[in-house]
Design goal:
Layout (H helix, E strand, L loop, with lengths): L3 H12 L10 H11 L5 H10 L3 H4 L4 E2 L6 E3 L2 E6 L5 E6 L10 E5 L8 E4 L2 H17 L2 E7 L1 H10 L2 E5 L4 E6 L2 E6 L6 E6 L2 H10 L2 E7 L13
Protein name: Knr4/Smi1-like domain-containing protein
Length: about 230
Amino acid sequence: MPTIAQIHDVLQAIYGERLQLTGETEAALTAAEARLGYALPKMLRDYYRLAAHSDWPNRCHNRLVRPDELQVRNGALQFFEENQWVSLWGVAEEDMALPDPPVCAAWNNDEPLAWETDDASLSNFLIKMAYWQAVNGGLPNFGLGAAGEEARQQVVAQWPLLLRDDGYQLGVYGGEGILICLFDAAWSDQIQVATQTPAQLDRLEDCLEVEWDVLESEEPSDANDDEEE
């Protein structure tokens, strides 16, 4: 299972020089544990210490729950929530003592919440979420479209597989500032991409046979200011 150092390396690879990580204080985590009556799983605690106040991986789309808002609901510690509050992610109470426990998920409209297994380990879930956050607003240049078989073959041939999740039928490909999230064809033709630079997004637009619905790039930071000369 991935270590907290490997999660840091994933975030660094995604965001490059943009990455600024701000962790939670020890006092805030200790207070949360005292209120809950539980010690947080080591991986969750380590992640809070690494990046709790870093918006791109934790708040640009789905949201990491703040330590003072953590709560146990229907037998699981809820620590992540979907951007429209449709889905919740948590750690089952019986798994709280594990250093890197499984993650469960529930629909927020179910009462009581019906928690089901989402990922075999918290560390892998955090990496999966890091990639998903990046293509949903974390990185400044992004695209969304429909990928046919030719585009799928192009992605598989040109970029290494970074993560595979059978539950979501999702493959994450990329490297060197490029991320490509590709769902299995039998489930969805959706492709989502994100890049560190506008030029990288232009490259994807040019080389992939995709029907793009959205392509957005950040404004260049070195815009010309010398037109008055």
